[in-house]
Amino acid sequence: RVVAVIMVGGPTKGTRFRPLSLNIPKPLFPLAGQPMVHHPISACKRIPNLAQIYLIGFYEEREFALYVSSISNELKVPVRYLKEDKPHGSAGGLYNFRDLIMEDSPSHIFLLNCDVCCSFPLPEMLEAHRGYGGMGTLLVIKVYAELASQFGELIADPSTKELLHYTEKPETFVSDLINCGVYIFTPDIFGAIRNVSTQRKDRANLKRVSSFEALQPATRTLPTDFVRLDQDILSPLAGKRQLYTYETMDFWEQIKTPGMSLKCSGLYLAQFRFTSPHVLASGDGTKGATIIGDVYIHPSAKVHPTAKIGPNVSISANARIGAGARLMNCIILDDVEIKENAVATHSIIGWKSSIGKWSRAQGGGDYNAKLGITILGEAVTVEDEVVVINSIVLPNKTMNVSVQDEIIL
Ligand code: GDD
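^ thats the input. predicted complex w/ guanosine-5'-diphosphate-alpha-D-mannose below
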């Protein structure tokens, strides 16, 4: 049997995702019309003998309760949210719930970061992992060398695929092969995490008894139960024939900012074209509007037949899209109103916001730049004939003049 664990973090982790994370935990923000965490969860469905999916985080339980119960019913696999009382780090969080995770006596445990977007080739990883015979296998990908330092950089043996060297976000270039944040482990991982915390405890005790240390100002040490998977486990175990790599040739992105969520929404829509084309809108559907490329429209949204929509557009529940509106590369959240002849491109339009007649919300499309797209927080009103370009507007603002490259607080 196999268990999957998805690390969802907590409210202090999603700060680069503001203002969107002011309303909703980042893992529940919709990409391609589904919560971010839904994509790894539905990928887990392809794992043979999957017993349970756990989400581990330090958000309040009630924030995930509704989603977890509906997805359990839909997938027919039990999905449970486990709340940490405080952050324990990416490995410490897993260790914290080891007894529960081991209840199903799993032979393997998948561990996934919730803020990555990829095709999650999990059954393929499991097969490769069985062949290697180690304690763990990491999903890895080659990226442009200049981008690699944002991630864990690693060196793998080209023939055996063993992880030989691992450095988390190094200052000087090590390798263009990076850690995708998707892993499979045997239950031995719990022993490895325990060793890290025992070593820390021993070191802390040693310091306490040493009179020299007592005279020093307090040195910054991590709590003994705070264990990071990358620095504390992967780095020291590299080159010890315990960890192996599986390289994906498919798409992979990390989702730390709203700009990247817009890009990843498009990647998931494109994947739906192959995996579940029925969820995509089609031009000859009941909505009547002109549809270009990959578009998701929630069944409760009302779209005028003269609107033109796509590519890469997701429209959430109860949104209303007026006559002659033009939407391209955008995420339209619940209860938004786009009035007649308004335009939204490279933008995220927050819950209950409205864009007035002949108005525009427009971004330049640089998904990595801070102001590369336009983001309207919850309940923002853009009045008629106002243009908002490459700007972030915080919740509850009314825009009656045009702005460019601004953050409206
Ligand atoms: N439950 C819980 N508790 N989750 C946590 C905690 C914690 O204390 N700390 C982090 N996480 C979750 C985050 O929500 C995220 O899904 C994942 O663990 C990793 O987060 P970070 O430890 O902040 O690392 P990162 O996202 O900057 O980088 C990691 O992922 C990259 C791939 O996206 C590293 O492993 C990199 O090497 C890797 O390239």
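The chain has nine helices and 31 strands.
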